[in-house]
Design goal:
Largest sheet: 4 strands, mixed
Number of helices: 19
Structural class: alpha+beta
Strand content: 5-15%
Order of helices and strands: HHHHHHHHHHHHHHHHEHHHEEE
Number of domains: 2
């Protein structure tokens, strides 16, 4: 396996077309943010979008509308609301850009280690389809999905420095990595684990080579990238006089709930460091068992290290494995397994394509020596695999359906009978009821999940007090909620087919109460 030059690592127009088209087609068919779907019914994505819509209308993040993800995520969703405030079309465009970035840098990473044939790029559409049809993806539009392509870019920068340089990235790459780190930090700070490993590797390499001046130049550029992202975030909260709400919502509440008050579903106890290590591997194993494609891609990524040349095999292994383990350790901070947490680790699975490309090239050469018809079959197989993988996506039950297929829009018809109605989602997160009705929340705590309400009782207390006062015109609850409200009456019940992250089909029911 010969080395490729930097010039060889550039992508041709043919490759770029394949990569962008495969990303766009995949997202369009598997994400419920796509125009092919009536709506995205996922409560997480809807909470982000509702806040984004509110910000466009002048509501202040955290102060007027509460949630606990990072501010940059809501800034992105505010941008998508500017594109369309009635649908997830803007989020669909952002998803395509993210998936295209992932496809491009995955292929560039592969070309660092393998001399691919012209047609082996056809494996990338299959790879992209497998990653984005994982049930971890759920309905699309979550923070993990939008962020893991950024880490793939950083991984490529690090591996390029190892394969084609002295192990230290270029100055421009250090700035880019700083910008990516800042972006991840202000979306969800548990995403920055990769850079803990990445930076540690660079520091060790610089010390080993006694390249202290270069290390300093990389450090200040990396910090400059962080500052470039951080300044506008802080300025937003300074100008809106809400910096204390940023601290409370994004930092204090998350640390208090996720790091201190998280309830354990795992009987592991003992030394905290040991517990964190065990929890990380426990969650990785769970992710692999629950979602086999995740486990297969992880194993293929590790196996790819055997295809690395001896001259930089050790450095590649240290960078890849060290950063991956720390990335997983930062993500799985709680002794509770959350199904989509591991999705951020898909950044590393670009390495899984390396052994597949090697096998494809060998098969292509073998077919060439025999029959041209056999060669054609080899080229057609990835196309069929791509189509089949997309067709098997769990979200296909919603594709091409009309909006009234969903309870959100059937209830919106009732809600809109009252002009400028005030509504509340109670005992459930916002699954799009505000957007479907074309309304915004009229109270700060409009959609936090039950776990937050359990640990921060003032959220529940505020809701109950407003209900007692008859503040809301309508209240949306789950089917299993049995409230005792003297001033509200049940006016509508709806149940929808819903395929959740396990792939199991269930009936998802909601009730609508109206103020008497």
């Amino acid at each position: 396996m010969g080395k490729t030059s930097l010039k060889d690592n550039k992508l041709s127009k043919y490759e770029l077309i394949i990569l962008w088209v495969s990303a766009a087609v995949t997202i369009t068919f598997v994400s419920t943010c796509s125009p092919l779907y009536p709506f995205n019914p996922w409560d997480d994505a809807n909470c982000f979008f509702t806040i984004g819509r509110g910000m466009v209308k002048g509501r202040i993040l955290y102060k007027d509308l509460f949630d606990h993800k990072g501010p940059l995520l809501y800034f992105v969703y505010a941008l998508t609301a500017l594109i369309s405030s009635k649908s997830f079309t803007g989020a669909w465009i952002v998803e395509i850009i993210a998936a295209g970035t992932f496809a491009i840098y995955s292929w560039k990473t592969v070309k660092l280690f393998v001399n691919p044939s012209k047609n082996s790029v056809l494996l990338i559409p299959v790879f992209i389809a497998v990653v984005y049809t994982s049930k971890m993806f759920n309905f699309g539009g979550n923070a993990e999905e939008l962020c893991f392509p950024l880490i793939t870019v950083a991984l490529y920068k690090g591996l390029k420095a190892v394969v084609k340089g002295d192990g230290l990235p270029g100055k421009a790459d250090a700035l880019i990595c700083g910008i990516i780190t800042g972006t991840l930090f202000w979306v969800k700070y548990t995403f920055v684990g990769f850079f803990a490993g990445f930076c540690l590797f660079i520091i060790v390499m610089a010390i080993k080579r006694k390249a202290f001046l270069k290390l300093w130049s990389l450090i200040w550029r990396f910090v400059a990238g962080l500052v470039i992202i951080t300044i506008p975030v802080i300025l937003y909260f300074v100008f809106t006089k809400s910096i204390n709400y940023l601290w409370e919502s994004y930092f204090y509440d998350n640390m208090a709930f996720y790091l201190i008050k998280g309830e354990s579903s795992n009987p592991i106890t003992g030394i905290p460091v040991i517990e964190n290590i065990v929890v990380t591997f426990y969650c990785l194993i769970n992710s692999s068992l629950d979602y086999p494609s995740f486990g297969i891609l992880m194993l293929l990524s590790i196996a790819s290290l055997f295809f690395v040349e001896k001259s930089h095999k050790l450095k590649t292994m240290l960078l890849f494995l060290g950063s991956f383990i720390l990335a997983a350790g930062f993500v799985f901070t709680r002794p509770v397994y959350i199904y989509y947490y591991g999705y951020i680790l898909c950044y590393a699975f670009c390495m899984a394509v390396i052994p597949c490309v090697k096998l494809f090239v060998l098969t292509e050469k073998a077919a060439e020596k025999n029959l041209s018809r056999l060669k054609a079959i080899v080229l057609v197989i990835p196309i069929f695999a791509f189509a089949f993988t997309i067709f098997m996506c769990k979200n296909m039950y919603l594709i091409f359906k009309s909006k009234d297929f969903l309870a959100q829009f059937r209830m919106a018809e009732t809600i809109n009978q009252t002009e400028d109605a005030k509504i509340l989602t109670y005992d459930t997160m916002d699954a799009g009821f505000y957007t479907a009705a074309g309304l915004l929340p009229s109270n700060r705590y409009f959609g936090p999940g039950k776990n937050l309400e359990k640990n921060f009782p003032d959220i529940q207390e505020q809701k109950d007090k407003l209900i007692e006062e008859g503040y809301f015109d309508y209240i949306v609850t789950t089917y299993f909620c049995e409230p005792e409200w003297d001033n509200y009456e049940l006016v509508q019940e709806e149940a929808d087919l819903y395929i959740d992250y396990t792939g199991e089909a269930i009936l998802d029911g909601h009730k609508l109460y109206k103020r008497i």
